[in-house]
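Appendix B, record 7
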Amino acid sequence: MSNQAQSPLKVALKGPEILNNPRFNKGSAFSREERDEFGLRGRLPYAVDTLEDQVKRAYEQFKARPSDIQKNSFLQSMKAQNWTLFYALLRSHLIEMFPIIYTPTEAEAIADYSHLFRRSEGLYLSPPDVDKMEADFLDACEGRELDLIVVSDAEAILGIGDQGSGGIGISSAKAVIYSLVAGIDPSKALAVALDVGTNNSDLLDDPLYIGYREQRLRGQKYDDFLEKFVGLVKKHQPKCLLHFEDFGVTNAQKLLAKYRDQHSIFNDDIQGTGAVTLAALQAAVAVTKSKLIDQRVIIYGSGSAGLGIARQLRDAMVLESESEDKTLSQEEAASRFWLIDKHGLIKKSLGQEKIRDEIEETFIRDEKDWEAEGETSLLDVVKKVKPTTLIGTSTHAGAFTEEVVKEMCKNVDKPIIFPLSNPTKLCEVDPKDANEWSEGKALMATGSPFPPVDIPGKDKKKYIIAECNNALIYPGLGLGTILSSASKMTDKMIVAGSKRLSELAPALRDPDQSLLPEFGDAAEVNFEVALAVLDQAIEEGVNKERGIPEDKDERRRWAEGKRWKGTEYLDYTYDESGLR
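Structure tokens (predicted):
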């Protein structure tokens, strides 16, 4: 990463070239002097706008679009024209526009990608051109030292599944969020689609589908394709963070396990979901004045999100126990978890045909504890386990019934209930109902935004429902890793980021407030997360960046200076040797 230039930026583009370059284009905000110097005088209307003028005009245009998908298309068009205006607009209306640039609207745009396609959004790699992959990769990275690569094979996109070449949309959207709330320079980021085919028959039957029109690559050929791609990243962009996004659960787990010690690797579906859930749970534990290692946790739903959460919480318990001189093994920490899927409690008697390969042995319950239970439902497990924490990642709407919630309340004063499935219609319980059934005792976080709920016995006071939005933490985890040039993103770095996020929870000041900060504060929150990750990388000795200040206050100022300040225009001067 580099400091934002303060003196005039040297640019080697003129006329239509600079107007058509989103990195340098200012549109109507070019000054009189710049219009003369860059040959723009007759190419722009006479008035010189401020960025504030442009944001106001763009917002009016945004609001004039009648549907969310048209608003998404408008913002995509703006990003292709003028980065500074695009990010300034988003930052000015972050809460309103985030669902447009990401879930749920981006999922709709990705599903219809072949019909909405106008221009490239990044790098597309497919099996027929595997022998040319290095040349294509180098072409995309020419002249750039990247900080970030976001890659997807589009097998599990935003709850809508296999989307083939449309996966570039999720890679691009994630890169935008990194720039928006963490300050990653978009000129140092690359979105990649590994278009390895699709099993989506709707796409294969669509005459306008623009992706690789074959069944999805599997087995050794898939592994070799990924090996070549990751090898190119390690060879040509050794300092960048490689962010895996929306891979199918089997490949996601396998790739993370294989490569995380070879390069700075991060998988948001596994580690990001786990990290933000850990932060919310740490805040809840602080409210209940208990400890993380004392929790009994039921996870209802054992896909990539549920397993990622289980692993993250387990590993955090192990680390917490080390600091208290009563070290737990992974097996001992795992014994505090009960995983449930469509077959009931995951236990040995289910047999291999009903237990997915990704589920680690330590999470599979021993049969001797459940000999008389048969096929164990959620309520059965709640009655026997007496959990302190119930987490839902099942997309089973209404699974946390009144009986389940009331059963939890029999055994703990403040049950921790996190129905994390999204969208809203798939949530395991409406927080309003859980609040009523628990008589206001439940500490809650959800995967989608929900309105505050009334607190029984507290006239007109509301309980604020935390939203476990990954964007509260993954950009900060990434920024801290990038700032440190870490050789890998370690478990301790992730736990340090989660811990810092939990410390910013409003609930620590008022238990009726949210277990996580508001998303409107995402930029400030992620910077704090990044500093904690940076400190941890230094403590573990995995940082490769030189010149990081030893003093914490100086380090903060140094880190702030490294962030991309893309929501304000710089002055330009023409120079043939300048940036292009």
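Remarks on this record: DSSP finds 23 helices and 16 strands in the chain. The two ends are 18 Å apart (CA to CA).
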